[in-house]
């Protein structure tokens, strides 16, 4: 019995016995088949067969329904997938051959579906860079139970890569020969393009952000917190991004000015900034200048400041270098001994010339500027200018073009012209160097034609061949240098280099000869006996016709006497002309050096400053005359110097005051000891002009660094101590103390008296005439203030003017003097007298602000005085320490018609550069230079120099302090315009002055408006 039959049998038995609850199941082997049993068995079998048939029919029906439903679902699935813009596929393994692809496969790569099913299609269409990775992932998926997705590139029918995303599942079924793969291919080309574009954009931004040469900062606009910084910021400031982010610039300490951050943040929030200059500080403490540009933006709903910082330190340095370069060019331009001129190429208009041009042509700078070289007739042959321009166009430069020019007197000069093209204010111009070679050409001709001139010239001449071997020297060369001709001829020129003090000069000369063919300059050499001498040397090349070097000619003059003269002038500039002691300028320089040396620890002791004033010197000077006073001052200076050390300095401070510097003393007692020695030198009588008289001195002492450590304070303290010595009875010394009440009280008392005197009208004017030496008549007067003190009597200006300057009362006093002067002029005009121009002294303090301008305008208008009758005398100290504001005032006065002059010229150290820029009309020679005339040749030389200088600057000259006819005669001979002094008349009261010097006016002219 087979298994099916047995199963059916058991089923039937089960059915038959289903209603019996306790009947056991008999074993087949034990059954005994009876007819009834067989019948029952048959019936059971029939019933079982029928049941089985029913079950089979029902199962078939359900299966048919399931298949129908499956087909419907599969159809719907395929329709849905095939309508999607994705490719569904199935693939066999391990061949990786597609066995099914959806119709959209053609849209993806351009290949029909049957091409996809071909063997090797996938491997052929995979991008070479992705082939190995994709193949490995497909094989790996075969052993995985899950799914995966990844992106790769396929090549379409044009060979263009197309990005796709694969979603893969592995399947195993008896329908396939082995494990297979299926899934989807999604076209992500557009997504990848967008991602790459976004990535490229981000890379570009990051590249620009981090590689920008300027620092870029994104900051919170509310509190300035740094949100992002680029690499330039890290390099420029020395902070890493990690250190900077989340902090403010103030917290990082990047501001050179610590409290600049909040105000700048507010400014950046208020408006967009461009190129705002700010000083920054790096992490290492160094500073730099930056330009800030900022803009406010909204980013992720947050208010952000985008700030760009550009380091312009290099630009600042470049600007400074440019300014320095321009200064160097200007200095070189105007200092060059050659003629330099800048002309417009189109018409030859002269834009600038130097002093060398003036020396060659005779035309001053003022006369030349604004005119063309053709207008001035400089070109002897105008074709030379065209030839120069053609050379400039063809060669780009002109070198040593020989031409002939005609100077202002009609004389012709030979010049070598070198020209470069320059652009000035957008116009094509030329910078030309005109070297006057007239003398050089004459010299060369003389060398070839006249040995007599060569031998008899006073200048030393030496000639070498092209190899530098000495061919000839003249007698002057042998006389100046001490080298005989016999020892030099045939020797190399280099043998004389041992006698040259400046070895660098030899290389300079060689370079100049190589580049320019000529050199001239000053040099210090030694004679054969070792004596130093100064020479002005001119070395020139003499060329053959073909341009090759024939020989060198050196001509030089011994200018040692001139150098000695210059040294004397320098000595005079730093020494008192009367006593030959150091003047105030030199003394203060030495005091400053002593203070610096002490601060640097070079001196371990103390230093002292002694202020010496001769007692009752004014009485001697006034009673016996200035010459006697001068002799006394000279004798006193000699005695003072005789008791001092070599390292000490005694100087004349002014008038009868001397000042002594004692550096490196052991103690205060040493200063007292020296003061005793100085007082002792005045115990012997002085002899002068047949008179014997005694003079004592009062000395004030200030110590450094005990009392002060600066020049002005030490002098001031010593001066105060000197007044204490005078108040204590004279002929003694006193140390400075902080409670110099006596001196302070006296000066305060005088200051108060001056204030009361101004209120009470105690100040009056005296008038001293000025005499015109050419017209031999009165041409002016000076108003001199006097103080009629109720207790002290007539007080001279030198006793109260310095205090007025110190306290500022000089402004009010000056206003009072101006009012008195204009009032007196008005009275004389009312009396039908013809007063000349009246000069009043103006302090530098009065030239601060515009008060003086309004005071003068009001005084002239009130008294109906023409401005031409007024002259303002300014001290030379003001000229030396001038400021632009005060010079502006002088320009206003000059335009008003007021005459301007410098008082006491020569006593200071004027800057001639500023002197020529000021609108001055007159220079007044100080009486200290006039007093020595005519005997003192130094004073005579100084007065002559001042007169020539003033006339060259277009100014007239007044000499004050003229006391005798001899002085007036010498000044007349020197060309002085006007004199003033006791020889003409002392200062006089107004009534006496008018009686002696004023004449009635021919008619009363109406006053000119101011």
Features:
single chain; 1010 residues; alpha+beta; eight-stranded mixed β-barrel; five-stranded antiparallel β-sheet; 37 helices; 44% helix; 26% strand; disordered N terminus
> What portion of residues belong to β-strands?
25-35%
The total count of strands amounts to 36
Number of helices: 37
What is the rounded distance between the termini? Answer: 157 Å
* Largest pleated sheet: 8 strands, mixed, barrel
Low-confidence runs? 1-33, 1004-1010
Helix content: 40-55%
Fold blueprint:
Layout: H1 3-16, H2 35-83, E1 86-92, E2 97-101, H3 105-109, H4 113-116, H5 121-125, H6 128-142, E3 147-155, E4 161-171, E5 180-187, H7 189-211, E6 215-220, E7 226-229, H8 231-237, H9 241-244, H10 249-252, H11 260-270, E8 273-281, E9 287-299, E10 302-311, H12 313-335, E11 339-344, E12 350-353, H13 355-361, H14 365-368, H15 383-395, E13 397-406, E14 412-424, E15 427-436, H16 438-449, H17 451-456, E16 460-465, E17 470-473, H18 475-481, H19 485-488, H20 504-516, E18 518-526, E19 532-543, E20 549-558, H21 560-573, H22 584-599, E21 606-614, H23 617-624, H24 626-642, E22 649-654, E23 657-665, H25 668-680, E24 686-688, E25 691-693, E26 697-704, H26 711-727, E27 733-735, H27 741-760, E28 763-772, E29 777-789, E30 793-795, H28 797-807, H29 809-830, E31 838-842, H30 851-863, E32 870-875, H31 876-880, H32 884-896, E33 899-905, H33 912-915, E34 922-925, H34 927-930, H35 937-952, E35 956-960, H36 965-974, E36 978-980, H37 990-997
Parallel strand pairs: 26-27, 29-31, 31-32, 32-33, 33-34, 34-35, 35-36
Antiparallel strand pairs: 1-2, 1-5, 3-4, 4-5, 6-7, 6-10, 8-9, 9-10, 11-12, 11-15, 13-14, 14-15, 16-17, 16-20, 18-19, 19-20, 21-23, 21-26, 22-23, 24-25, 28-29, 28-36, 29-30
Helix pairs in contact: 1-2, 23-24, 27-28, 27-29, 28-29, 29-30
